[in-house]
Design the sequence.
């Protein structure tokens, strides 16, 4: 059994080389092989073309959707510095409450959304929620007071709750573990681009102040809301279903996708029906909760940064609000590049924990500079390192959790819990940057620094060593008793609890 376990490690650590799939394909039973009789070279060529087709069909549109999602939830930070608070007669605490209420509904409903995604199909569920939040965004542009803004922000959080965990789960059902991280990083880099693009867009739209009798901040919400609504309509044709139902694939290509997932020991290739046992399996899995702690550190920091970076930069020196919007662009652009680079490195090395630890150190240095540097230039440099330490960890943590959770529904529930708990920390993040703490914002920077040190870095270290210890036990055969007396089908149903399932570190 020890030698079998070593073979499992070799299989689990294969890189995303199409030839790897061809070499392992003959070990998979129960899945029709449309390429039977072809040489390894011919199989590899077909696999490369298939992967390219998946990337072109899935990633661009889904990335656009997340760009729009992140833009719509954070543009309130841009609106703040062009008169939102003043026009609606809001105090600093009331403004922070409008940020907080979004995260309440967003977090509460996230764990449920992946089950709905599976039941309703992505091509129906995702366009519907986009249309709903597009309407909410447009209504934010016509609110007259604090109460109206609070109500719309609640429904915005409810509408957006299904996208990020849904797409993370959806993509994990298409790609092998060694391919998923960089795709998730490309998808999430849209969040960093949203911060960059959002600053430019807000700077341009703010010049419409007075047009139609509406303030510039109002036009930010109205125009972006209408754009979101139209993108939601288009999504009925641009969002696809799971591999066994995707209409853009030929019947043979569907078989190839399912077979390559089976080669990767993924039950995403199976037609799994929902059972409450999958929910409880996720709740009882320690990896769900360590993953939630790690994601908490990344997500709590993310929302604090993205919601308040225009305000932080605006307070560095006496910049105009337009200049502050523009200066917020470069840190996001650098973060987007590093997010994709880390995704690629983590896929190739399968060392997601070490990648998390590495980028978290960048973030810790960045927020230490924001706390300690006296010069505006030094603190502005800190925003670069802060962004570089936060954004790559989000996508990498989701990929890490997905790689180590097997079973279609169990993975969906686990990602919902992990992401929901992480987003719940937006309640904290939206209340730590207060006007009375300007221009240094010591409490806000200190809380983000604590999130990075304790939860992102510390949590990643703990999970890394726990996974390493569990892999060692499986290689030694200490878990072999789990499958005694079980047939092959029963063993497959164990998912990531199978003794031959080796975790990604």
Sequence:
């Amino acid at each position: 059994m020890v030698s079998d376990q070593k073979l499992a490690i070799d299989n689990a650590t294969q890189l995303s080389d199409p030839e790897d799939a061809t070499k392992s394909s003959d070990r998979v039973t129960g899945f029709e092989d449309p390429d039977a009789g072809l040489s390894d070279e011919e199989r590899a060529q077909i696999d490369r073309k298939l992967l390219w087709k998946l990337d072109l069909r899935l990633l661009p549109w889904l990335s656009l959707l997340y760009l729009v999602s992140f833009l719509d939830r954070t543009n309130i930070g841009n609106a703040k510095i062009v008169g939102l608070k003043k026009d609606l007669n809001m105090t600093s605490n009331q403004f922070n409450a409008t940020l907080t209420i979004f995260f309440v509904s967003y977090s509460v409903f996230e764990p449920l959304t992946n089950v709905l995604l599976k039941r309703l199909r992505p091509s129906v569920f995702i366009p519907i929620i986009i249309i709903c939040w597009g309407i909410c965004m447009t209504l934010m542009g016509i609110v007259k007071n604090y109460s109206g803004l609070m109500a719309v922000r609640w429904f915005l959080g409810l509408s957006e709750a299904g996208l990020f965990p849904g797409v993370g789960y959806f993509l994990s059902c298409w790609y092998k573990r060694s391919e998923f991280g960089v795709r998730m990083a490309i998808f999430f880099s849209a969040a960093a681009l949203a911060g960059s693009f959002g600053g430019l867009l807000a700077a341009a739209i703010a010049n419409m102040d007075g047009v139609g009798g509406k303030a510039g901040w109002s036009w930010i919400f109205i125009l972006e809301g209408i754009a979101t609504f139209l993108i939601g309509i288009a999504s009925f044709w641009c969002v696809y279903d799971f591999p066994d139902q995707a209409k853009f694939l030929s019947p043979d290509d569907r078989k190839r996708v399912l077979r390559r997932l089976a080669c990767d020991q993924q039950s995403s290739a199976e037609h799994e029906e929902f059972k409450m046992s999958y929910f409880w399996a996720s709740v009882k899995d320690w990896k769900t909760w360590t993953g939630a702690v790690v994601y908490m550190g990344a997500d709590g920091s993310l929302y604090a940064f993205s919601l308040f970076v225009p305000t932080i930069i605006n307070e560095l020196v006496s910049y105009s609000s337009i200049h502050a919007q523009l200066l917020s662009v470069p840190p996001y652009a650098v973060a987007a590049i590093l997010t994709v680079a880390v995704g690629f490195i983590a896929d190739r090395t399968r060392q997601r924990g070490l990648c998390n630890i590495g980028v978290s150190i960048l973030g810790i240095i960045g927020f230490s500079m924001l706390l300690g540097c006296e010069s505006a230039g030094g603190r502005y440099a800190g925003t670069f390192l802060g962004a570089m330490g936060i954004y790559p960890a989000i996508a990498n943590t989701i990929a890490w959790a997905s790689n180590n959770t097997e079973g279609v529904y169990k993975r969906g529930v686990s990602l919902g819990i992990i992401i929901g708990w992480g987003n719940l920390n937006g309640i904290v993040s939206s209340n730590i940057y207060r006007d009375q703490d300007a221009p240094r914002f010591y409490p806000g920077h200190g809380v983000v620094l604590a999130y990075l040190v304790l939860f992102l870095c510390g949590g990643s270290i703990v999970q890394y060593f726990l996974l390493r210890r569990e892999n060692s036990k499986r290689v030694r055969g200490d878990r072999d008793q789990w499958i005694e007396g079980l047939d092959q089908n029963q063993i497959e149903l164990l998912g990531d609890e199978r003794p031959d399932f080796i975790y990604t570190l």
